[in-house]
Write a structure and sequence with these properties.
424 residues, alpha+beta, Beta Polymerase, domain 2, 3 domains, 7-stranded mixed beta sheet, 23% strand, elongated
């Protein structure tokens, strides 16, 4: 497959040849004239000299295969950009990750205890490389960030962000899984299969995403075709984020650690740019059992009106102004009797169309978290209630007077639904 689902690893022999070329290049020329200043306020770029080079990571530990070659370089001007050093001193070798500094303090913001010094002026680097013994028991250095399915550089994530995500994962606030690209590849197609897919193709044609991000869109649609649910609205933000119902897609950018504190969102799906090294696929992030919303909504109960598919009947509502933009509204009820009476009155006032269903459905527990992603405004057995900033803004644009709206937090809404369960 052109884009492998899992990271393709290079043989140790191939990595050794790359290191030999790098060391020979430094022997030939360890000082270069910079084409960019080391600091923005310097007029002349000047020179820089490499003084020492360490190999770190899985190669230094003797692994028989490597994802890439991790190097730490010490230079006399440590503020020179890594990209410039990699290009001018090393010749931009493929599958090499370069950090500046020394094994204890470097631009990776981590220490490398396994570091092996392989090059400095006058050093026999061939002997240094030969001295690193292969060890078939070593596969990959188990760094904490390895628990994130993508390499940080694939999604522009930094170490602070990764540590925040991992801390939430360890506390079961977040849970995640990796869906390999080849699991959805057979569902890629250019023809829309439903009205919501037609909206997707319209967005794809008009979006402001870059060329690499646009390549991801057919796979995003294939993911939805595979995992659903069907019939949700699409929207796009800034060319790197899409929303499909309660699912937010992030195209090669990292989601905020608190993204799932928004009730309009139930799932995050991160996809890195397609690459021939891998991994390629979908990082699916959801609320874990210790997430505050999972615990808050655990005891919630209420009733809704369901459509013919059994889904809560969300309507597009306005306050009656012709120019108003509709808001997604859902009628909910704190008792079954209230819901049934509402349906009876509704049927008398507006008889259902042929095939239209108006069934009373009981919603319990954290299922509410998915229901709430489908609407902005709650009505029926509640006063007209909004529970998010976005919902407030959309309700006001739909012509609802701010004074007529009840605004509550997620915790307050959960408390009201729990009281329904306790008194019912």
């Amino acid at each position: 497959m052109k884009y492998p689902s899992y990271e393709a690893r290079m043989a140790r022999e191939q990595a050794t040849k790359t290191l030999e070329r790098i060391c020979a290049r430094l022997d030939a020329c360890a000082t270069v004239e910079l084409d960019q200043p080391a600091l923005p306020d310097l007029d002349a770029p000047g020179q820089t000299t490499a003084t020492r080079l360490w190999v770190v990571g899985s190669y230094a530990r003797g692994a028989l295969t490597c994802g890439d070659i991790d190097l730490v370089m010490e230079v006399d001007k440590p503020l020179v950009s890594v990209s410039q050093l990699n290009r001018m001193l090393l010749g931009s070798p493929r599958r090499v990750s370069l950090y500046t500094g020394n094994p204890d303090k470097n631009s990776s913001n981590g220490a490398f205890q396994e570091a092996v010094l392989v090059w400095e002026s006058g050093k026999d680097w061939r002997a240094a490389l030969d001295g690193i013994q292969p060890d078939e028991s070593v596969s990959r250095f188990d760094r904490p960030t390895d628990r994130i399915p993508f390499r940080l550089e694939q999604i522009e994530g930094d170490l602070d962000w990764a540590e925040a995500m991992l801390e939430l994962h360890e506390r079961n606030v977040l849970t995640w899984r990796f869906v390999p690209l080849d699991e959805v590849s057979d569902l890629i197609g250019d023809e829309p299969q439903s009205e919501d897919e037609q909206e997707f193709f319209r967005l794809a044609q008009a979006n402001r995403a870059g060329a690499d991000a646009k390549k991801l869109l057919p796979y995003v649609l294939a993911f939805v075709r595979k995992f659903g649910p069907a019939g949700r609205p699409w929207s796009m933000d800034a060319g790197t984020q899409l929303k499909y119902g309660g699912t937010r897609f992030f195209l090669a950018v990292p989601p905020a650690p608190d993204e799932l504190m928004d009730l309009s969102c139930s799932q995050l799906v991160v996809m890195a740019h397609l690459n021939t090294r891998g991994p390629n696929g979908f990082w699916v992030i959801e609320r874990g059992p210790s997430h505050s919303y999972m615990t808050a909504f655990e005891g919630c109960e209420a009733w809704v009106i369901a459509d013919a598919n059994g889904a809560p009947a969300v309507i597009r509502a306005t306050s009656g102004l012709d120019a108003a933009r509709p808001v997604a509204s859902l009628d909910i009820f704190l008792s079954q009797a209230d819901a049934e009476q509402f349906v009876e009155d509704w049927n008398e006032d507006v008889p259902p169309e042929p095939g239209e269903a108006r069934d009373v459905k009981f919603i319990r527990g954290t299922t509410w978290l998915d229901v709430l992603t489908r609407c902005d405004l709650l009505a029926g057995g509640l006063p007209e209630t909004v529970f998010s900033t976005g919902g407030w803004n959309r309700a006001c644009k739909a012509g609802f007077e701010p004074d007529s709206l009840t605004r509550c937090t997620a915790a307050e809404l959960a408390a009201a639904l729990r009281r329904s369960a306790e008194t019912g």
